[in-house]
Prior knowledge:
- The structure is a single chain.
- This protein has helices spanning 2-7, 38-54, 61-65, 85-93; strands at residues 14-24, 27-33, 71-78, 101-104, 106-111, 122-128.
- The protein is an alpha+beta fold.
- The strands form 2 sheets. Strands 3-2-1-4 form a 4-stranded antiparallel beta sheet, covered by helices on one side. It has a two-stranded antiparallel sheet with strand order 5-6.
- The longest helix is centred in the middle third of the chain and has 17 residues, at 38-54.
Amino acid sequence: QRYLAAHVCALKPLSMLLGGLSLVGNTVVVKVLDPAGKLLEFTRNALRELREEIYDEGVNVENMIGLHRDVFWLSAARLADDADPALLAYVREYFEESMGEAMFEQMVLCRTDQLYRPQFTKVLKVYPLGECS
């Protein structure tokens, strides 16, 4: 929270290209492309500054920074166990389909699990981009 409160005002609202659908577990996700590297640079700086607070000795933060070099993911929908096979086929069909642009005007700090399941997700704070509070 300290890092975001101090730095998010320097990250102006940004638009990013949406590059297709995919499935992660029971979640439909949308590829978000960061060709200008704005979100990557913000993430890179945060990881470097917070490495001692967040990670144990021996964790290679520099390797982690490159995990999402060009692509980030947005959760679009959670699927029931009996999801319609036609929906799954649709998601697979549109894996590479460009979906236009999305405008991002805020950053939301959450505590969650690795699949962002609703029952394990809690919003801690919402930060408008480009505004210091």
